[in-house]
Write a structure and sequence with these properties.
The complex is a heterodimer of chains A (168) and B (428). By secondary structure, chain A is α+β, with helices and mostly antiparallel strands. Chain A has a domain of 104 residues: 60s Ribosomal Protein L30, Chain: A (2-Layer Sandwich). Helix content of chain A is 32%, strand content 18%. Chain A is built from four helices and six strands; from the N terminus they run H-E-E-E-H-E-H-E-H-E. Chain A has a four-stranded mixed beta sheet. In chain A, strand 4, helix 3 and strand 5 form a beta-alpha-beta unit. Chain A is globular. About 16% of the residues of chain A have low confidence. Chain B is mainly beta. Chain B folds into two domains: 155 residues, 3-Layer(aba) Sandwich (Rossmann fold); 258 residues, TolB, C-terminal domain (Neuraminidase, 6 Propeller). Chain B has five helices and 30 strands. The longest helix of chain B has 17 residues. Classes of the chains: A alpha+beta (168), B mainly beta (428). The interface between A and B is large, with 60 and 80 residues.
């Protein structure tokens, strides 16, 4: 029974090619139809994803808020960044900003995605507190996938713990 | 016993496998290290005709069996045998082999290859059967993996995983690629290439589709892609971040992490997309879902207790039970298909280390000596774990037995290699 099951599995797998034949039976017969140009069973069809790079301009000055290790509180020193971007968005309700949260490289990709999300949402809340409409904002996270500094020293890691206000 | 000691000594040579088939091994870049408890000694004789064919079948078979941790290769170089031979069983027993595999590779008139093999029990002098396959050149490696599966199942009674596939991601020169490869890391083919990150590949139970998170639209979004056709569909593209796809065992539902209602919470969604159903609703981070083997529960990471730990709840949500109690940072749960084991990553004194917990007892073993382990995933026979780590300054993929005794570094495409996912058994 096992042998039959295995042979069947081989047949299913080698679809399009000659089936796995038990050695007790007749030798391989070169059948019609299948040629050597036939593709391999396990072929993978590639997809190319290309992202467009549209970046609209925002206000002059910084769009970036930096965070302490393991924290997502917007520190007072970045209140100016929040204010200038809030002013910009309130002046033109058609403007739309995506806040991108980032982390340093320590930890799992998905847990860091969630930590980065906390940061972008903190900036979003700070902007809304100053009167920016929710419909103009979206908070997302890149987690640890988009570092600006590649070292694993404290200074590099500090540069990566950031939320970026990106106008799109 | 004499044979086992000799084998142990040979395997203790860490680094490159010092096998008599060394020239063939060099190109496969399989580095197996460690000493297993019970290893069946097997000789895989060079297949007649393989030196002239595109793939060295016997070398692939031997590497597969050794990577499982349950076999030890016996020197068979120079043997001139095929599937019609009647080998001298006593001579092979003398060399220390309990089993012997022999075969041939023949080019057919239509350009395909005829691959045949036979397995011998050298101790009882018994013919354990064999198979023949007629394959195009592109499927020669697959034929070798099928042979390894046959031998593995005949001699251990368990199903082999050698003809299954893995997925993983590389980052190189600003490009991100999602690869589908053989279980040994070879024969990698690109499923998705992007200028933006790709993370969290997850095989569908049907083995034909992969879910993943792509940042190509400049935010994280969950896709499901048919591997052979390249057709893909959007599963989750809600406001905010969409990530961490995990398939229910019946393939009809995915658990995902969404921030559409604020924070990072767990939802389920049909594998055809549509409206998500919220499972968790709190101020903590809830992410990295992993279904139990029977689909009734979901393991996940939550910092509701103040730091990330692994919890379990019913697949419909509700109260969660904490599962990890050692350490203050436990993430990336993976459940073995037989339901017995939980693998995860734990931060220990700043290092990230793979842990394996036996679920009935709660006993945990730390099974690696590397310090940047990530993203464990079980083989479908629950006997091996694949994970990403750093070795000698490079990001690599490793497989390990559950006790950590036998490890192998896999071949892979160049660049930073990460986020492996082991595919299921091929369905009929």
């Amino acid at each position: 029974m096992k042998r039959i099951l295995l042979a069947f599995a081989v047949v299913a797998l080698m679809a399009g090619c000659s089936s796995g034949v038990n050695l007790q039976k007749a030798p391989v017969d070169n059948q019609s139809g299948s040629t050597s140009t036939q593709g391999a069973t396990s072929a993978v069809a590639p997809v190319n994803a290309n992202s467009s790079d549209q970046n609209a301009a925002g206000p002059a000055g910084s769009h970036v808020v930096y965070f302490d290790f393991d924290k997502y509180i917007v520190k007072p020193e970045y209140q100016g960044v929040i204010e200038s971007n809030a002013d910009f968005l309130k002046a033109d309700k058609a403007r739309h900003a995506v806040i991108e949260g980032n982390t340093d490289d320590v930890g799992s990709a998905e847990y860091n995605l969630a930590l980065g999300q906390r940061r972008s949402e903190a900036v979003l809340k700070a902007l809304e507190l100053l009167g920016v409409g929710d419909s103009q904002l979206e908070a997302i996270s890149y987690g640890k996938e988009k570092p600006v500094a590649l070292g694993d020293d404290p200074a590099s890691r500090a540069k990566n713990r950031r939320a970026v206000i990106d106008y799109r | 016993m004499n044979r086992k000691t000799n084998g142990s000594r040979r395997l203790l040579l860490a680094g490159l496998l010092a096998a008599p088939l060394a020239p063939a091994f060099a190109q496969f870049r399989v580095e197996v290290s460690g000493v297993g408890m019970t290893q069946l000694p097997i000789a895989i004789a060079p297949f007649r005709g393989e030196a002239q064919s595109p793939q060295k079948i016997s070398a692939i078979v031997q590497a597969d069996l050794e990577r499982s941790g349950q076999f030890r290769g016996v020197d068979a170089s120079g043997a001139a045998l095929d599937e019609t031979s009647h080998p001298d069983m006593a001579a092979w027993r003398q060399k220390g082999a309990d089993s012997l595999a022999v075969g041939s590779v023949t080019l057919l008139a239509d350009g395909r290859f005829d691959v045949r093999f036979r397995l011998w029990d050298a101790v009882r002098g018994q013919d354990l059967g064999g198979q023949s396959y007629a394959v195009v050149a592109g499927d020669l490696r697959l034929a070798a993996h099928r042979i390894a599966d046959y031998i593995y199942q005949k001699l251990t009674g368990e199903r082999g995983v050698f003809s299954t596939r893995i997925a993983y991601i590389t980052k190189s020169g600003g490009r991100y690629t999602l690869w589908v490869a053989d279980s040994d890391g070879e024969n990698a083919q690109a499923a998705l290439a992007s200028s933006e990150p790709i993370i969290s590949p997850a095989w569908a139970p049907n083995g034909r589709e992969l879910a993943y998170v792509s940042f190509e639209s400049r935010k994280p979004v969950v896709y499901v892609q048919d591997i052979s056709t390249g057709k893909r569909r959007l599963i989750a593209n809600f406001r905010g971040s969409n990530s961490a796809p995990a398939w229910a065992p019946d393939g009809r539902t995915l658990a995902v992490t969404l921030s559409r209602d604020g924070g990072s919470q767990l939802y389920t969604i049909s594998s055809n997309g549509g409206q998500p159903h919220q499972l968790t609703k709190n101020a903590s981070i809830d992410t990295e879902p992993a279904y139990s083997a029977d689909g009734q529960s979901i393991y996940f990471v939550s910092d509701r207790g103040g730091a990330p730990q692994i919890y379990r709840m019913a697949n419909s949500g509700g109260p969660a039970t904490r599962v990890t109690f050692v350490g203050d940072y436990n993430v990336s749960p993976a459940i073995s298909p037989d339901g017995r084991w939980l693998a995860y990553t734990s931060r220990v004194s700043g290092a990230f280390k793979l842990q394996v917990m036996e679920l009935t007892s709660g006993n945990v073993n730390s099974i690696t000596d590397t310090s940047a382990d990530e993203h464990p995933s079980f083989a479908p026979n629950s006997r091996l774990i694949i994970y990403a780590t750093r070795q000698q300054g490079r990001n690599v993929l490793m497989t390990t037995t559950l006790d950590g005794k036998i490890k192998a570094r896999l071949a892979g495409q160049g660049g930073d290699i990460q986020q492996p996912s082991w595919g299921p058994f091929q369905k009929q």
